[in-house]
Amino acid sequence: MRRGVRIACIPWLERGSLVVIAASLLGTAAPALGSVVAAGAKHSSGACQDVTQDAFRSCQNQARAAYWLALARCDNGGGTGDNAAAARAAKQDACDKAARQDLKDARDQCSAQLAKRSEICDALGGGVYDPTIDPANFTTNIDNPYALLTPGKTFVYEGDTANGHEHDEVHVTSDTRLIDGVTCVVVQDTVTLDGVLSEDTTDWYAQDLAGNVWYFGEQAKQYSDGVLVGIEGSWMAGVNGAKPGIVVEANPKVGDLYRQEFSIGVAEDMAQVVGLNQSESVPFTGAFANALETFEFSGLEPDSTEHKFYVPNVGFVLSIDDQTGERSELVNITP
After folding, report:
1. Is the same domain home to 304 and 324?
2. What is the pTM for the complete model shown?
3. Would residue 27 be called left, alpha or beta, if left means φ above 0 and alpha means ψ between -120 and 50 degrees?
4. Is residue 273 situated within a structural domain?
5. I need a labelling partner for 53 at 20 to 30 A (CA). Which of 82, 214, 227, 277 fits?
6. Which residues contact 184 (CB under 8 A, 6 or more apart)?
């Protein structure tokens, strides 16, 4: 269910607390994201900005490393036949040019990530994100009305994309897994594109005693023509500094801003509550007017945002891509 856009900056999440306190509870509404950087505000200092700067340097170094590796491949290119030398030179020139463009694009993306992460730091504050996770405060009985993860249920979503018709089945298994000391429910998320497997992800969830649903990681696999081509976005709480985040709050309020996952450079999804009685329509429920609506985004993908809708006692029903307008709609729940 954590499909979509994929840091450490929530000072009011006290180390002994399991509940994310939103900016609105501090006496002011959470600032609209995009306004801080756009207004030219000075970025706050602190651990969050330190993380942002370190991640930026890492991104730049990775871009340079990829560039030199691309040049090595270019140098190993070849040409055959009577015009081998000319063919090799032309091929290498084109290859070098493509490598330089890729380097520019990668550096631009690093800069965009820097700006977005800095904006998030200004919105949330300068502290570290370090929730204390006490296994005794968690349960596998996930009954939050916005995220009912009952073992045996399968949520089916469909939508048309630029690449074809997407069919997504999210199956809540009866299996559990111990993640960072917490027993989590295992959820299997399988996506096909025009009938061909494109994604197969295992997600891990648990609910705290206050009713917040936490996300403890995912094992993500991407496929092309039936062949495994990547594991992008995979992370696990407690490994390499990764921390769990909240997928759905127990008592959401408009303006609440919170982290959904935290693995630097891998998974940095954020969400902000924008409405509690929102109207939309999907095939399974028909029209509804009581949905929780969240705006979801990531410091890793600054240009990718979406809106999600959760209907009480049903769960997640709809996501809308802000850039393309593509919709993934709940079409069925089985059994």
Report:
1. yes
2. 0.82
3. left
4. yes
5. 214
6. 140, 176, 177, 178, 204, 205, 206, 216
Asked if residue 322 and residue 247 are part of one domain, the reply reads: yes
Residue type at 3? R
SS3 312: coil
Q: How many CA atoms lie within 13 A of 37 on its CB side?
A: 14
Tally of CB atoms within 10 A around 314: 20
Specify whether 312 is located in the same domain as 172: yes
What is the distance between the terminal CA atoms of the chain, rounded to a whole angstrom?
Answer: 18
Phi first, then psi: give them for residue 215, nearest 5 degrees.
-115, 120
**Number of alpha carbons in the 13 Å side-chain half-sphere of residue 250:** 14
Domain residue limits at 254: 135-334
Dump pLDDT digits (tens) for 285-326: 999 999 999 999 999 999 999 999 999 999 999 999 999 999
Q: Which helix (H) or strand (E) holds 261?
A: strand 261-262
Is residue 216 within 8 A of residue 140, CB to CB? The reply is no
233: left (phi over 0), alpha (psi -120 to 50) or beta: left
Max CA distance (Å), the chain: 77
